[in-house]
Write a structure and sequence with these properties.
Elements: E1 4-12, H1 15-26, E2 29-34, E3 37-41, E4 50-54, E5 59-66, H2 69-82, E6 86-90, E7 98-103, E8 109-114, E9 130-138, H3 141-152, E10 155-159, E11 163-167, E12 175-179, E13 184-191, H4 195-207, E14 214-218, E15 225-230, E16 236-241, H5 275-282, E17 286-287
Parallel strand pairs: 1-4, 5-8, 5-17, 9-12, 13-16
Antiparallel strand pairs: 1-5, 2-3, 3-4, 6-7, 7-8, 9-13, 10-11, 11-12, 14-15, 15-16
Bound molecules: fe (ii) ion.
Amino acid sequence: MTIRLRSIELALPDPAAAAAFMTQIWGMAEAGTRGSTQYLRGSGPYPYLVAFDRAEDEYVRSTTFVCDEDELAALTQRAAKAGWPWRSVTSQDLGGGHGIELEMPEGVLLRFLADSEDAAPLVGRDLPVKLTHVVFNAADAEAVGDAAEAVLGFKVSDRTKGMVFVRCNESHHSTAFARAGFTSLNHIAFEMEDIDAVMRGIGRLRDHAQTPAWGPGRHGPGANVYAYYIAPFGPVIEFSTAVEKVPEDYKVGAPEDWTWPEGRIDQWGLSDKDFDGLRQAEERFRFRRTWTPEVA
Ligand SMILES: [Fe+2]
């Protein structure tokens, strides 16, 4: 199981404004444009991490993982057998590649690509390295987590009162499903080089009068450092680093294994959490399937 999270593809009315925030303040590099789609990258070898398509309203087009041909074939077979909507694709995004797009129960749209091309890393730039996780809200997170195991071949790492954390390689989680009662994008987390890079990111946003909606802090499951912001173009985005690497036989934690002392919801206890603001932002980006499934 060595599937890797690569990128997220969002549609929104003003991609240029979103890209300007991400490059000038958040700290990403422009990777190019195709038609009305703008691509932004980090310092790592992926051709882009975030794509912004122009559309009249806001939605998630896909979240993209990369894998090998064998994994792709097995995944396609399992998705078809499970009756999930899916189709074969040749990616028109930067890096190309072929694979499948599929729709999970509740509508989460994922794309898996084999043979997509990497780019030369950007050395010496203070940028996110890659995405470390994309989290989704779910009406029934337990069922969607089970589906991720059965059909995607992912593994549940931990369950908490709020989330089902799921991995697709040695990283504790590359996605998670929040027990939200509705389906949407929960947040996008960018992997920073180290804690200093997270702190410098917080400093950059502070220069523009933006404070974290939650953080800095260190989570329980995954033990990663975080700082969450509500992006001016809508979604919740996170600086993160140092997510735990876990072995194949990692013992799946249950909600009772992940409780906090009174007054704490992370390891450090430094910051308050803007629950209402975060929840409102989490409701904005839903999933929209713009493709027609293949018929078996
Ligand atoms: Fe996160």
